[in-house]
Specification:
Strand content: over 45%
Structural class: mainly beta
Helix content: under 10%
Oligomer: single chain
Order of helices and strands: HEEEEEEEEEEEEH
Largest sheet: 12 strands, parallel
Number of helices: 2
Distance between the termini: 77 Å
């Protein structure tokens, strides 16, 4: 009887962690409802409603769109973090960053553009008035 009770109350998907281990290479896109940790290499895009952690041995070439992102490895491409992007001291990021909040530890490397805070479409497309 306990077995059927467990089926009726499954754990939420957000508690599941997807792990790409060191030595694993993936070419393609990843879409997930839960958290993701990458210690291997991904050439492709990631979209998650959870948290992405790129470990020290991890590397991504592509677009990242997650709620929270923590980078200790390498990311080359566009990063969009709805809430917080954390760059650890071992992080190497090159590309475009868009995040509500940004945390950068001393020693991390960043090359590219960064846009922080809540940015509305109106603010971006609005042109300044000429006197």
């Amino acid at each position: 009887m306990m077995k059927s009770n467990q089926k009726n109350n499954p754990e939420p998907d957000a508690k599941h962690i997807n792990l790409i281990s060191k030595g694993t290479r993936i070419a393609g896109d990843i879409v997930s409802e839960g958290d993701i940790r990458i210690d291997g290499y991904l050439k492709g895009n990631i979209k998650s409603k959870g948290r992405l952690v790129v470990g020290e041995s991890g590397a991504i070439e592509g677009e990242v769109e997650c709620v929270n992102v923590e980078v200790a490895g390498k990311v080359k491409g566009k990063i969009s973090a709805a809430e917080l992007l954390t760059m650890k001291s071992t992080a190497m990021v090159s590309g475009e960053i868009t995040a509500s909040k940004l945390s950068v530890e001393p020693g991390s490397l960043f090359s590219g553009t960064c846009r922080m805070g809540q940015v509305t479409e109106k603010t971006v497309t609005e042109t300044p008035k000429q006197p």
